[in-house]
Amino acid sequence: MNTDDIKNSLISANSDFQKHIEKLPKRSQKTAKSLLEAVVRLAYVLYSSGETEQAEQLVGPLSEIPFSNSYDYWTWIEAALVLKGTLAKAAGDKIAFTEALQTAQLALETGTELQVSVKAAVHQRFLNGQMLDDSFDQEDDERDAFEMRINYLMTLCKIRFFGGSETWPDVRTESAIAEVVGKINASVQAYGIHQLPPFK
Fold first, then answer.
1. H-type helices in the chain, by residue range?
2. Is the pLDDT reported for residue 2 higher than 80?
3. Domain extents for the chain?
4. Are 61 and 76 in contact (CB under 8 A)?
5. N or C: which end of the chain has fewer CB within 10 A?
6. For residues 200 and 192, what is the distance between their CA atoms, to the nearest angstrom?
7. 22: Cα within 13 Å, side-chain hemisphere
8. pLDDT of 146 over the 90 cut
9. Could you tell me which of 47, 36, 45 has the C-alpha nearest to residue 9?
10. In the chain, what is the straight-line distance between the N-terminal and C-terminal CA atoms, in Å?
C-alpha cells in the first residue's frame, strides 16, 4: 500500500475527491500513513457537515484494507470502519454494519492468548471513556480546538460502534456526539472546510 494506491482508490470512488486531496498539505501526502490519517479525519468532518454520502465514499475503500498487524495503519483503518458502520446503521443497513463490526473485531482477536487478553483490557478502558479528551473548549487556537474535536468525535463514535459501556451508554454517547458534531459543523460554516484541519 502506498500513497498513489490510496489516492487512486479514493478518486475512483468519487472524482471530486481529487480537489480535496490536492489541497492537503504536503506533509500529509508524504507517506501512506499520513495520507490515511488526513483522509479519515476529512471523512469525519464531512460526516459532521451532513455530507454523509461523501463521507461514506471516502471510508469505503479505506475500510477494505486488511489488518496486517501494523497498528500505525490500523488505527486509521479501524476509524474508517467505525464511520462506515455508523453510516450503515443510520441507513438501516444491518448487514453492512455487522460486516464492519466483525472486521474491526478481528484485529482484537488476532494474536497470542496473552496479546488478545491485553488488547481486551485496553479496549475495555477505551469503552469506559478513559481515552476521551474534552479539553478543546479551553483551547485558544481554533484549528487546534477543531482537530481535538475531530479526535473526540472519532473516540465517541468508536465507543458507540463497539456497544458502549456502563460509563458511556448509548444515550450519553449520542448526546455527546450530537454536541461535538454541531461544533465541528459550526466551525466549517464559519471558516470553510479548506481553512481547517486536515487541510491546515
1. 3-13, 17-23, 32-48, 52-62, 71-90, 94-108, 113-127, 142-161, 170-191
2. no
3. 3-195
4. no
5. C
6. 11
7. 6
8. yes
9. 36
10. 25
**Sign for the pseudo-dihedral over CA of 73, 75, 79, 84:** positive
DSSP state of 128: T
Residue 74: Cβ within 10 Å count: 18
Task: Record the cell numbers describing residue 38, joined without a space.
Answer: 488526513
Cell of residue 158, nine digits: 468508536
* Whole-number Å distance between alpha carbons of 117 and 126: 14
User: With contact defined as beta carbons under 8 Å apart, do 13 and 61 qualify?
Assistant: yes
Q: How confident is the model at residue 71 (pLDDT cuts 50, 70, 90)?
A: confident
Residues 6+ apart with CB under 8 A from 156: 132, 173, 176, 177, 180
Residues 21-49, mean pLDDT to the nearest whole number: 92
| Predicted model pTM | 0.92
